Amino acid sequence: MKYFTRMKIRRVYEWSGRARSFNRRLKTHDYDSFAISVEGLSKIIINTGQHILIEGYDEDNPYVAKVTRLYGDENGQQMKAVVQWFMRVSELPVNKLKLLGREPHPQEIFYYECRNCDNEVNVESILRPVKVKHLDSNDPFPDSSDKDTLYVKLSWDSKVFGVVNSTVMESPAEPAPASSPPSCLKPSLPISPSCSQSAATPRGPSRRVLPTPDHAIMQKASLGEVDHHFLTVSLLFLQISPGTPKTPRHATPSIPIRSLQTQQPANILEEARARLHVSSVPESLPCREQEFQDIYSFVESKIIDNTGGCMYISGVPGTGKTATVHEVIRCLQHAADMDEIPSFHFIEINGMKMTDPHQAYVQILQKLTGQKATPDHAAVLLEKRFSNLAPRKETIVMLVDELDLLWTRKQNVMYNLFDWPTRRHARLVVLTIANTMDLPERIMINRVASRLGLTRMSFQPYSFKQLQEIIMSRLNKLKAFEEDALQLVSRKVAALSGDARRCLDICRRATEICEHSAADPSSTGLVGMSHVMEALNEMFSSAYITAIRCASTQEQLFLRAAIAEFRRLGLEEATFQQVFVQHQALCRIEGLRPIGVSEGLAVCQRLGACRLLLLEPSHLGVLQHIRLNVSQDDIFYALKAD
Ligand SMILES: Nc1ncnc2c1ncn2[C@@H]1O[C@H](COP(=O)(O)OP(=O)(O)O)[C@@H](O)[C@H]1O
Ligand SMILES: [Mg+2]
């Protein structure tokens, strides 16, 4: 490793020189410098105004900052530094780097203008000084023979890059007023960030999580009393953010932000759980870069060209469709805020959140105009609006999630969703998300399908490797799982469905099981194979699973037939007749005696009675519609494990 960390080397921190001033109210002294002594090496003196490296969770890339103030008590029990942060290239959101308009230099850092940043660290988290040079934004970067120097040209405020003038960089830190409470000591900047906190009451709504381990722990650590494992653990949980959902575009992936109002996670497992929660927005979406790019380009080009269009996005549940589209919209919205693209009006509806498909009209109208109307009236108004010749001001981007559920006998709702964007003056971009592949074909049968020119995109189920990567990236270096345990979950889920949501749920449950299991003295405290195995069993052993396992061979076969037919149709629904044809084919494949229609209907009714199937009234006979009341996963799982 290039840098020393306390985990390997014992270091001693002490004030160097006399206190410069004393704050009576807080009983703290201000200092100009302190010394770090590393065993066997000479002392390093660090002064205010100097650039330093601060321990983070990435050993190879410690945080970069400049000391603006040093204070604490005389005996060195409490040693604090107020700093100005800089961001490394690796700390910036990948999708923001394009705002630079050029390749970043590997040794480039950015003056971080951060609102509500926690700018106070424990002195013990400071590793060593570092050379930082200011360059004018037009200056070339020097030849990189000197790998140790970092260069600053620009500032970064979580949204845009700005120019840093050299006075900001070179001016020595302002001394803190001795008698007033310490204030935020940021040098003034062209775009001056609000300094909403003072060190005396360091309670910003959301603060940069510091690479500052708890003072007590560090105090002990520097005395060599704490074992390394404990230290590692403490460091880890202090540097991560509990499940505050974060938007990838507005947060910086490697510097988690946490709200101090939320309790600190009690331990690693709790933290892991927060990060794995399906409702927490991941910082990045690994394995979906291409899909992201394609959807982004599609919508962006429509917005720029003032045209409309429709994209049909399909894939089985848990393949990241919703997450990817939401991320695309966030990025586009940001681009619009930055005036990089024309602004647009985004609305979203979700088939799952509607009691009736015709509610879609009501909701769309309401979200577009604030008007309330009955479904029929709303349909008329929308039709008018989208065929109106007057060109609209803004492009409307409409996300229709869970489109499958907007299926109606007459298919009008779906048809309109595909049709409106083709109207010349609609300036409407519709993104539809569905679980089934060939819904459009099924709707278009008697209509002019080719006119609609649908752009399609399908999300493939995640492979074992991808699921593993997704979990790991969510955990973001938090070591909560044994390696083989993570592998097991990923393999199991990939074999069944490739559903990331399920994978996350099982991992979360496993952390709970691990936490509540009596600590085996030999255990590492991490989530292991046994915990994961128990979680897997639990997840797949609901009453329904038991019911499937206990069902007769013909009943089990009928369930498989239903799935086969749904897949063929690309729908979640079929008639008894259709399923029955599959059932007979399966009987032949399995070498079973094919059953007759009435026996088949009886099998179907029994499955309905135990709620594995949802059935239309039985007087419809072979024409009754059938739906599954359990996930296809559950059925595969129940039948495979046999
Ligand atoms: N590539 C990914 N990286 C990180 N998390 C993911 C990824 N894909 C899916 N997820 C997570 O899995 C869960 C399900 O994803 P979602 O987008 O809702 O799936 P879908 O809409 O396809 O059913 C969400 O919590 C989402 O954040
Ligand atoms: Mg979804």
From TrEMBL:
<dbReference type="Pfam" id="PF01426">
    <property type="entry name" value="BAH"/>
</dbReference>
<dbReference type="GO" id="GO:0005664">
    <property type="term" value="C:nuclear origin of replication recognition complex"/>
</dbReference>
<dbReference type="InterPro" id="IPR027417">
    <property type="entry name" value="P-loop_NTPase"/>
</dbReference>
<dbReference type="GO" id="GO:0046872">
    <property type="term" value="F:metal ion binding"/>
</dbReference>
<dbReference type="GO" id="GO:0033314">
    <property type="term" value="P:mitotic DNA replication checkpoint signaling"/>
</dbReference>
<dbReference type="GO" id="GO:0005524">
    <property type="term" value="F:ATP binding"/>
</dbReference>
<keyword id="KW-0547">Nucleotide-binding</keyword>
<dbReference type="InterPro" id="IPR003959">
    <property type="entry name" value="ATPase_AAA_core"/>
</dbReference>
<keyword id="KW-0597">Phosphoprotein</keyword>
<comment type="similarity">
    <text>Belongs to the ORC1 family.</text>
</comment>
<dbReference type="GO" id="GO:0016887">
    <property type="term" value="F:ATP hydrolysis activity"/>
</dbReference>
<keyword id="KW-0539">Nucleus</keyword>
<feature type="compositionally biased region" description="Low complexity">
    <location>
        <begin position="181"/>
        <end position="196"/>
    </location>
</feature>
<protein>
    <recommendedName>
        <fullName>Origin recognition complex subunit 1</fullName>
    </recommendedName>
</protein>
<keyword id="KW-0238">DNA-binding</keyword>
<dbReference type="Pfam" id="PF09079">
    <property type="entry name" value="WHD_Cdc6"/>
</dbReference>
<dbReference type="Pfam" id="PF00004">
    <property type="entry name" value="AAA"/>
</dbReference>
<dbReference type="Pfam" id="PF17872">
    <property type="entry name" value="AAA_lid_10"/>
</dbReference>
<feature type="domain" description="BAH">
    <location>
        <begin position="44"/>
        <end position="167"/>
    </location>
</feature>
<keyword id="KW-0479">Metal-binding</keyword>
<dbReference type="GO" id="GO:0003688">
    <property type="term" value="F:DNA replication origin binding"/>
</dbReference>
<comment type="subunit">
    <text>ORC is composed of six subunits.</text>
</comment>
<keyword id="KW-0460">Magnesium</keyword>
<keyword id="KW-0067">ATP-binding</keyword>
<dbReference type="InterPro" id="IPR041083">
    <property type="entry name" value="AAA_lid_10"/>
</dbReference>
<dbReference type="GO" id="GO:0006270">
    <property type="term" value="P:DNA replication initiation"/>
</dbReference>
<dbReference type="GO" id="GO:0003682">
    <property type="term" value="F:chromatin binding"/>
</dbReference>
<comment type="function">
    <text>Component of the origin recognition complex (ORC) that binds origins of replication. DNA-binding is ATP-dependent, however specific DNA sequences that define origins of replication have not been identified so far. ORC is required to assemble the pre-replication complex necessary to initiate DNA replication.</text>
</comment>
<dbReference type="InterPro" id="IPR015163">
    <property type="entry name" value="Cdc6_C"/>
</dbReference>
<dbReference type="InterPro" id="IPR003593">
    <property type="entry name" value="AAA+_ATPase"/>
</dbReference>
<dbReference type="InterPro" id="IPR001025">
    <property type="entry name" value="BAH_dom"/>
</dbReference>
<feature type="region of interest" description="Disordered">
    <location>
        <begin position="171"/>
        <end position="211"/>
    </location>
</feature>
<dbReference type="InterPro" id="IPR050311">
    <property type="entry name" value="ORC1/CDC6"/>
</dbReference>
<dbReference type="InterPro" id="IPR043151">
    <property type="entry name" value="BAH_sf"/>
</dbReference>
<comment type="subunit">
    <text>Component of ORC, a complex composed of at least 6 subunits: ORC1, ORC2, ORC3, ORC4, ORC5 and ORC6. ORC is regulated in a cell-cycle dependent manner. It is sequentially assembled at the exit from anaphase of mitosis and disassembled as cells enter S phase. Interacts with CDC6 and KAT7/HBO1. Interacts with LRWD1 predominantly during the G1 phase and with less affinity during mitosis, when phosphorylated.</text>
</comment>
<keyword id="KW-0235">DNA replication</keyword>
